[in-house]
Design brief:
Number of domains: 1
Helix content: over 70%
Structural class: mainly alpha
Strand content: 5-15%
Number of helices: 6
Largest sheet: 2 strands, antiparallel
Number of strands: 2
Order of helices and strands: HEHHHHEH
Radius of gyration: 14 Å
Length: about 120
């Protein structure tokens, strides 16, 4: 992944997080700057922590036919909210679960729009 792709992914995730904070998902982010910090922390956690968690949770993921991967996303989402001041989850784990699913959905929509512009 080159630097331009990394910056685009960071901006797309920041915009997605800010949009999610405006929806009734229980995710609260104070400013767009906090959304950018949250996206950076989320990306770092995904790069460093997700492989370890995925390895440890592999048996559960297989037993649940892959559905536990959504819970892993929620755990990383919640950890990012815990680490960034100004990024809060109103309903705890449920907000993290809804936010993680919404983040994947909105990221996909934005990338589809960016792909159709090219």
């Amino acid at each position: 992944m080159d630097l331009v792709s990394l910056i685009i992914a960071w901006i797309v995730t920041s915009v997605s997080l800010f949009i999610i904070s405006k929806l009734p998902t229980g995710v609260e982010i104070d400013t767009f700057e906090k959304a950018m910090w949250s996206a950076a922390v989320f990306g770092i956690l995904n790069a460093l922590l997700r492989p370890i968690l995925a390895f440890l949770a592999f048996p559960i993921t297989v037993l649940t036919l892959g559905l536990f991967a959504i819970v892993l996303n929620a755990i990383i989402f919640g950890l990012a909210a815990y680490l960034v001041t100004g990024f809060r989850l109103r309903w705890g784990f449920w907000s993290a679960l809804i936010g993680a699913v919404a983040l994947g959905f909105i990221n996909s929509l934005i990338y589809q729009l960016l792909g159709s512009i090219r």
